[in-house]
C-alpha cells in the first residue's frame, strides 16, 4: 500500500482523486501481465493516448488514466496540475498529482507482473515524479515532451542506486516546456536513471511516428528484462 511521503503540504494530495471508472483498458484480462500506464497531457483526457495502444508491444496490458483536475474554462479535457499563475508547475502540485496516481495504482496495478509508465507533457512530469516517490514500483518510464520537476525528494538517493531505465524524447521545435526545465532535466536524468532518449529534429510539442518506434523498442527491452 502506498503511503504519502514527508513532502506533503497540508494534505494537498488527499484532495486529488483519480476517477477509476474513466480509465480505459486495452483488455479485461490483466492478471499477471506487464502493465503500461498512459498519462496524458494538459487539456487532453483518457481517450487521447489510448490511440497509441496499437504502437505498443504485444503481450502487455495498457491503461489510459484520466487526470484528476479540470483546467480553467474554456480549456477542454483534464489536467494533472495547474500551469497558470505564479504557482504554475509548482513542485508540490506535481508531487500531489503523482501521489494521487500512486493511490490509483495501489488497486489498479495490483495484479501486474511489472509496471511501466508512458507520459506525455504533464503526464511525463507526473510519471517521473511517481518514479521518484516509489522507485521500486516501476520497471521503466517513457517521458515524452516532459520534464523532471526541480527540487529534492526523500528517495532521490535510492533512485540513483537503482537507476531504472528512462526514455526521454522531445522535439527540437517544442516551445511549450520552458528551456530552464529542459536544462534541469538534461542534468537530472543521467544522474538518477539509465537514460536513453532522442531529440527529434523539427518536431513540435507532439509525438511522431519515429518516436513511437523508439518507444516500442524501449518497452520491448523492458518486457525482455522481466521475462522469466
UniProtKB/TrEMBL annotation:
One of its GO terms (molecular function) is hydrolase activity. Keywords: Hydrolase. Residues 28-223 form the Phospholipase/carboxylesterase/thioesterase domain. It comes from the Bacteria. InterPro entries: AB_hydrolase_fold, LYPA1-2/EST-like, PLipase/COase/thioEstase. SUPFAM superfamilies: alpha/beta-Hydrolases (SSF53474). Belongs to the AB hydrolase superfamily. AB hydrolase 2 family. This is Alpha/beta fold hydrolase.
